[in-house]
What does this fold into?
Amino acid sequence: MDPRLLPLSNHRPEDLDRHRLQLLRPHEIAARLEERSVVFLPLGTLEYHSRHLPIGLDALNAEEICLRAAAAQGGLVYPTLYYGTGGSHGSFPWSIISPSGAEIGALLAYSLERLDELGVELAVMFTGHFAPEQVALVEDAADRWNGRGRRMRAVGLSVDGATGLAIAPDHAGRFETTLLHAHRPETVSPELIPEPRPGEAGQDPWGQVRYDPAHSLWGVVGPDPRSFDPADAAALLDACVRWVLAQIDGAATK
It folds into this structure.
């Protein structure tokens, strides 16, 4: 483990709050940026994550990863944007997903402009919503910004592209259930998932069968979350944070 990355148990709420931009006064913002001039912009969406997980999961995980990265090596975390685009769950209960990324892209572009004017050296747009359209949105926003030759650099990231994780990313499956349990265990309730129906064993966990409301794992795309082990949660979250820190270390040297 990176020695600069504190174990999960050492990150108290007050340790994370000192990096939340919206809670800080100007002199506190200056002090955090003096430690490291990085601002994280976490994004998610409101999206159905089956019966056992909250609809804000994507944003909750993105915010936690960004906060822990900032707590480990410095920086600030912008208020999380609970809007996203893309994916195949737009018609599911309580999914509120923009049909276009244009509005979100405009917000990101304006935010990058202001952060640059305010002297920030690196902006990290990190999405917890893994839809290809959303991942492309943050990556393209970073590419367009960096192509302008401005002083501040930008990077667009998603943990869906992370390597070396013990559990592969999914939607409401074992990965997202385990990751959320690391920091919001009270919101994870696998006991709410019905028992498997006859014929479900052996089905493709990534297949269209999970889009059938009659399926016991309706809305889950990936491995059955009923098999998740809470003991894996802290290590998975730390691995995601270490991956993000490695990406921004690389971006800062370019």
